[in-house]
Design brief:
Length: 363
C-alpha cells in the first residue's frame, strides 16, 4: 500500500505543495500516525525497533508525508512522560484519530537553547508568554503547541527554561506562515507570536525549569534518531533508482552499470546506506532497552544526514542531466534530503553534543 497509494498521494502533494484533508485522513485511516502511540491511548504500541523499518519505507514516499509520520509518532511522548494526568486524558487519545500536537522551540532571533528570548512571566494564577517562534511544523493542523520558553518570576528573577502547553485558540497567540521550502513540500511551517498570552499554571509541562531536559530527552534524542532513519530510507530509494537507471542506460554499446567508475560510485553509496542502517538499529535497540541515547542519536543524525547527501549526489550524477528533471524521482530525493540537514539540529550541533559527551564521559 505504501508503495502504491501513498506514493501517488506523495506525487500529488509534491506537485500541489498542499496537504489536503484527503491525504491527512488517509494517513490517519492507515494507522501510520499512531504506530508508536501506546495502546492505552488507542495506538499500536510499537517499539522503535519495530517502527523504524516502517518509517524507513515511508521516508521513500515524499518529504511532507515523512515529516508528518515522523512527528506524529514522536511528539506524543512529551506529554506521556512529562504531562499531567489531565493533559494525557485530554490530548493523547485524540492523536489516534488524526489530531496533531506541534513542538516549538526555535526562534527567529535566537537559537534553540539557553539564549531563548520568548519569556513566560509568572503571575498569581499562571504565566504570561511574550515572544516569537518559527519553524512550527504542521502548524496549520496542530491543536496544541508544546512551547519552550525562558521563565521568570513576578520580579523578573530567573526560573530557567520551561515547557508550556498552549492551545491554538489561546488569546494573545497569532500565527503566520513561513515561505515554502525547496523540499518536503506540502507541510506548512508556522510563525507563532505571543503577545501577553496568558497561560494557566496547570499548562506547565513537567516542572518549572525542566524545559531543556524535556526538549532534549523528551523529544530531540528520539527525533534525531528518527531523522537518521529517514535518511537511510531516502538514500536507499535514491540508490535503487540509480542502479535501475545504470542497468538500462546504454552508451557505446553497453549499459553504464558495466563501467567501473559507475560501479565504484554505486559501491560507495551501498556501503554508506548499509552503515547508516546499522548505526540507527544499534541506537534503537539501546533506546528500547531503556538507555539514554543522546550521544548515539547525535552520531546517527550526524552520519546519516551526511551519508544521505553523498548518496543523493551520487544518484543524481549517475542519471546525469536526466536526474535533474522531474521525469525521475531522484531530483525529489535530492531536495527532500537537504531538509533533514536542519531538522532537530545541524551537523555542527551534533558535533558539539558528541564532543562534549566524549570529553565528559570518555569513550
Amino acid at each position: 500500500m505504501a508503495k502504491s497509494e501513498l506514493a501517488e498521494l506523495g506525487d500529488e502533494l509534491d506537485r500541489k505543495n498542499e496537504m489536503s484533508n484527503a491525504v491527512w485522513q488517509r494517513l490517519t485511516d492507515t494507522g501510520l500516525l499512531r504506530l508508536t502511540l501506546k495502546k492505552e491511548y488507542g495506538g499500536e504500541g510499537l517499539s522503535e525497533s519495530e517502527y523504524f523499518p516502517i518509517l524507513e519505507v515511508c521516508a521513500q514516499l515524499q518529504g511532507g508525508i515523512r515529516m508528518l509520520i515522523h512527528g506524529a509518532n514522536g511528539l506524543w511522548r512529551i506529554l506521556d512522560r512529562h504531562g499531567s494526568d489531565e493533559m494525557k486524558r485530554a490530548y493523547l487519545p485524540p492523536l489516534a484519530h488524526g489530531a496533531y500536537n506541534a513542538f516549538v522551540v526555535t526562534e527567529p532571533g535566537a537559537g534553540s537553547g539557553r539564549d531563548l528570548k520568548t519569556t513566560g512571566r509568572q503571575t498569581k494564577d499562571g504565566w504570561v508568554l511574550s515572544g516569537q517562534k518559527h519553524w512550527a511544523t504542521n502548524a496549520d493542523r496542530a491543536q496544541v503547541f508544546c512551547v519552550i520558553a525562558k521563565t521568570v518570576d513576578e520580579q523578573g528573577g530567573d526560573l530557567g527554561i520551561s515547557a508550556f502547553l498552549v492551545e491554538r485558540d489561546r488569546p494573545g497567540l497569532t500565527m503566520d506562515y513561513m515561505a515554502p521550502t525547496n523540499g518536503c513540500r506540502g507541510v506548512r511551517r508556522g510563525v507563532l507570536t505571543f503577545a501577553d498570552c496568558w497561560i494557566p499554571a496547570k499548562n506547565v509541562i513537567g516542572g518549572v525549569g525542566q524545559g531543556l531536559d524535556i526538549a532534549f530527552r523528551g523529544f530531540l534524542d528520539l527525533g534525531r534518531l528518527s531523522i537518521a532513519n529517514c535518511c537511510v530510507g531516502l538514500a536507499q530509494a535514491a540508490l535503487e533508482e540509480a542502479v535501475a537507471f545504470a542497468r538500462e542506460r546504454v552508451t557505446f554499446g553497453k549499459p553504464i552499470a558495466d563501467r567501473q567508475y559507475i560501479q565504484g560510485r554505486l559501491a560507495e553509496a551501498a556501503t554508506d546506506v548499509h552503515a547508516g542502517r546499522l548505526i540507527v538499529q544499534d541506537a534503537a535497540r539501546k533506546y528500547d532497552a531503556g538507555a539514554t541515547i543522546t550521544r548515539e542519536a547525535a552520531m546517527a543524525k550526524l552520519f546519516c544526514t551526511e551519508m544521505g547527501g553523498r548518496v543523493t549526489d551520487h544518484a543524481i550524477r549517475t542519471l546525469g542531466g536526466l536526474g535533474y528533471t522531474t521525469d525521475y524521482k531522484v531530483e525529489r530525493y535530492y531536495r527532500d534530503m537537504r531538509g533533514m540537514w536542519f531538522e532537530e539540529g545541524t551537523a555542527e550541533t551534533q558535533k558539539m553534543l558528541i564532543g562534549r559527551d566524549v570529553v565528559e564521559r570518555g569513550w
